[in-house]
Amino acid sequence: MDLTLSGVGTRLGGRWVVDGVDATPPPGRLTGLLGPNGAGKTTLLRLVAGLLTPERGAVLVGAGASAAPVAAMGRRERARRIALLEQESSSSVPLTVREVVALGRIPYRSLWGTDPDDEAVDRALHAADAAHLAGRAWSSLSGGERQRVHVARALAQEPELLLLDEPTNHLDVSAQLALLAFVRDLGTTTVAALHDLNLAAAFCEHVVVLSGGRLAAAGHPREVLRPALLREVYGVDADVLEHPRTGRPVIAFHEPAPRTAPAPVPAGEA
Amino acid sequence: MTTTTATVPRTTPPLAPSTAAPARTHLALLVAVGLAALVGTVLVTVTIGPADLGVGEVARSIVAHVGLDVAPVAPLHDAIVWELRLPRVLTAAAVGAGLALAGAVMQSLTRNPLADPYLLGLSSGASLGAVAVLVVGVAVLLPVAAFVGAMAALVATLALARSGGMLTPGRTVLAGLAVSQLCAAGTSFVIFWTATGDSYREILSWLLGSLAGATWSSVAIAGGAVLVVGTLVVLAGVRLDAFAFGDTAAAALGVGVDRTRWTLMTLVALLTGAMVAVSGAIGFVGLVLPHAVGSLTGPAHRRLLPVAALAGAVFLVWADTLARTLFDPRELPVGIVTALIGVPVFAVLLRRGRGSAWT
């Protein structure tokens, strides 16, 4: 799905948390949403999901003349086209995995709560490689399994646009790689907020870097993730190398230099 | 010879009990069993009590009143069935169904396993509203006044619980306790001030609940509310599933979070108001039944709500039958029986909730 952010901005508690962001994530590809804590990544994802209405600008979905602002879409239609996975997502309800995935069918349910497509949940479970978990209790799953089931729930919405808020949090390395490879290869337009710059560099076709709610840079990771930008946005000193196998950027960080270093006072003079 | 048992098909793979989810019984089966149990309960409980009645007589009396031609029942027995016991049993069924529905919805709405119209003060608020109108003497408005009282109590409880920020189960129950005590004191005061005869009995029946005064108009009020409001609650309650992972997740699934919440709160207050108007504040039905039924139906509201309503109906009919026969000819307020069953359940839930962020 074509997605265009045009001058999107909104305030939370009087402060412009997202301020005039323009972006065009490539359709059918994985876009990384980067930036330090508090840069506005989560708020921007909620704006794109239509859960918040931008005070300025617009989030447009669809191509050319058929492009329509997300904020003007009906709730159910929006939920059939856009799926959002939150960062922290837990439940005290004693659900089975199948029931969790079936939540993704809510936008398609009839008045009486029945799903017109009986096989959608199974398809989503299979697609996310979570079919073997279907009968398990949600509370018994590991972090990696839970994230897999959340992805299955999002797929059950049959979305054209998938939004993920730090999906690799709390996952071990192999689960992180598996998850990002999976969403990259889905062929669905996906925007994922990511903290790990090396994961973004390895898997994303496009990255959007936020800093203080504003757009700092956007483009292919190779063009965007340069030492100057990392210093400006994250305040870190880094070298950008080339991955020996994939040719993608690999970022090697340096220890932070002592800032206003007053000369240490020798112990004897105190 | 090889073992022949190897050919027995194994339907489910072995799973460790801690990870295996409970199997979900088919909804149509549960509803059918629930309905059968309810009809059987009504026919049997009407026979219980002084005067020797049989199930056949009860059935014949009912069928005759519906207008079909059957062998007549002795007039005295017919009067006992049709004028005394049947209205009471049917009122109990309707009130039980309504309170169980209200409890199930409130538990999901406040994400609080201890939520119940009684514990959160709705029932006492409804009692106060009803009693206040009785004093003025406009009995037609009784259910309306009870609804206004329930809604006001609900808003007060939630406002009090939220004043510190997060709406935790512990805070909500404490806030409900405060509101409920205030309303109970108000109810007692109004009756004490105005009642001419046995005011203590009347106070008790409003605060602990009683079905002793049930008539066909009670059946109409409570039954009508369960059928109309209850259906709306089940329809709107289906959307409660979406709240399992919180408000943002519900919104992302296309559910109008605030609209759903206020719609359901209003419906629950209406339901509680109608129930309290005919029976006073009967506690713990809304707490116990959703938990008991949840293990059979699972948490999906499309399944949970109708089955909880049926189970609540059966439960309260039996509780009321115990209340009126246990110390015959004395009668217990039915709220004592439901509390005897409900408080242990409350205690178990409280222990189970320890360690999580409850307070």
Automatic annotation (TrEMBL), chain A:
The keyword Transport applies. This is ABC transporter ATP-binding protein. Residues 3-237 form the ABC transporter domain. It comes from the Bacteria. Coiled coil: none annotated. Pfam families: ABC_tran. The keyword ATP-binding applies. InterPro entries: AAA+_ATPase, ABC_transporter-like_ATP-bd, ABC_trnsptr_F420-0_ATP-bd_pred, P-loop_NTPase. One of its GO terms (molecular function) is ATP hydrolysis activity. Keywords: ATP-binding, Nucleotide-binding, Translocase, Transport.
UniProtKB/TrEMBL annotation, chain B:
It comes from the Bacteria. It comes from Cellulomonas algicola. It is a multi-pass membrane protein. PANTHER family: FERRIC ENTEROBACTIN TRANSPORT SYSTEM PERMEASE PROTEIN (PTHR30472), PERMEASE OF ABC TRANSPORTER-RELATED (PTHR30472:SF67). It is found in: Cell membrane. This is ABC transporter permease. The lineage of its organism: Bacteria, Bacillati, Actinomycetota, Actinomycetes, Micrococcales. GO terms for cellular component: plasma membrane. Its main location: membrane. GO terms for molecular function: transmembrane transporter activity. Keywords: Cell membrane, Membrane, Transmembrane, Transmembrane helix, Transport. Belongs to the binding-protein-dependent transport system permease family. FecCD subfamily. One of its GO terms (biological process) is siderophore-iron import into cell. Pfam families: FecCD.
